């Protein structure tokens, strides 16, 4: 069965000394033991869009879609520094990539140059350890969060921050791109006149350009505009999940891979210059993926945390 990772126990191990550099901790176990719940290593307050990829921006701002039960659980789990705002800590996993070296492969999955995602073939880290990819991570942290309300062995604050972030990552098409080019990271392109790489174009540049051109450089204005375009039919379709797996992250990854082939990689080579034509034809895809990420994260959190009355009202088909 694809996407079954329910028995894994990834979570924050003890923090290492400040000042370490990437590569110094290669021999640390890549499968860390769970740390005590609420171990107090709360992240510093960060705001979305500062320093990190912008592609998850919608994701952690799906408050409108949360039931009151889910909203209360999220606020309860967030570190105090977040001020009750999931968006404030949504980029925390990116900041922790070097401190928690084991978590680095959990931000993506790669295919061997083909346009479909296959969990058993593609969900592993560089050492070949199964489930160590973005899909396995979403399933794992969802499973961990099921213990909310019991005396959990997990640090559920970290589980929530990881889950929210990774649901954003799996919707960025090039986070499920080809292994050979590291999801577009090794494809050097010019975004208009600026030299960058294809992965960065999809993480940041398209959104940044849209914000500048259409939304007065304001993230919130852009998010509001995207939300206005989401119909109730979209929400119903996007959150439907019939797979016999913890979540439908497997399906979200497959969608990303085909979008990577049909849009991200399409007509792009080393040293391509990407401008208006690429921007205007790809922006709708980027906006739809942001919207889907937000709706689906809310669906997962609602299923996890809603009280029973709310849940029967929402009629969710989500299978967890
Ligand atoms: Zn990430």
TrEMBL record:
Q: Which reaction does it catalyse?
A: Endonucleolytic cleavage to 5'-phosphomononucleotide and 5'-phosphooligonucleotide end-products
UniProt GO BP: DNA catabolic process
Annotated region Disordered: the residues are 1-56
In the record, which residues are listed under signal peptide?
none
Composition-biased stretches (Basic and acidic residues)? 1-13
Enzyme Commission identifier(s): 3.1.30.1
Single GO MF descriptor = single-stranded DNA endodeoxyribonuclease activity
Output compositional bias ranges, type Acidic residues.
14-28
Superkingdom of origin: Eukaryota
Question: Can the keyword NAD be found in this entry's annotation?
Answer: no
The top EC class is hydrolase
**Positions of transmembrane segments:** none
Q: Which UniProt keywords apply?
A: Disulfide bond, Endonuclease, Glycoprotein, Hydrolase, Metal-binding, Nuclease, Signal
Q: Give the family, as the similarity comment puts it.
A: Belongs to the nuclease type I family.
Q: What is this protein called?
A: Aspergillus nuclease S1
């Amino acid at each position: 069965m694809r996407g079954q990772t329910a028995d894994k126990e990834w979570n924050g191990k003890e923090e290492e000394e400040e000042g370490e550099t990437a590569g110094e901790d290669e021999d640390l176990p890549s499968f860390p033991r769970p740390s005590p719940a609420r171990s107090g290593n709360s992240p510093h307050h960060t705001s979305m869009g500062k320093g990190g990829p912008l592609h998850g921006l919608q994701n952690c701002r799906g408050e409108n879609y949360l039931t009151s039960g889910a909203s209360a659980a999220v606020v309860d789990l967030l570190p105090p520094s977040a001020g009750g705002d999931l968006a404030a800590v949504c980029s925390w996993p990116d900041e922790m990539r070097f401190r928690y070296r084991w978590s680095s492969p959990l931000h993506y999955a790669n295919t061997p140059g083909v346009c479909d995602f296959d969990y058993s073939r593609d969900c592993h880290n560089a050492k070949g350890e199964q489930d160590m990819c973005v899909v396995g991570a979403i399933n794992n942290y969802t499973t961990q969060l099921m213990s909310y309300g019991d005396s959990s062995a997990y640090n559920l604050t970290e589980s929530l921050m990881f889950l929210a972030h990774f649901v954003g990552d799996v919707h960025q098409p090039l986070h499920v791109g080809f292994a050979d080019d590291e999801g577009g990271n090794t494809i050097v392109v010019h975004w208009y006149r600026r030299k960058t790489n294809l992965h960065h174009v999809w993480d940041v540049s398209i959104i940044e350009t849209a914000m500048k051109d259409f939304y007065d450089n304001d993230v919130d204005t852009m998010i509001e505009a995207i939300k206005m375009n989401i119909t109730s039919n979209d929400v119903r379709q996007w959150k439907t999940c019939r797979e016999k797996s913890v979540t439908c992250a497997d399906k979200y990854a497959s969608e990303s891979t085909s979008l990577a082939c049909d849009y991200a990689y399409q007509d792009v080579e080393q040293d391509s210059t990407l401008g208006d034509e690429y921007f205007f034809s790809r922006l709708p895809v980027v906006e739809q993926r942001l919207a889907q990420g937000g709706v689906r994260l809310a669906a997962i959190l609602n299923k996890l945390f809603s009280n029973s009355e709310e849940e029967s009202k929402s009629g969710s088909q989500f299978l967890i």
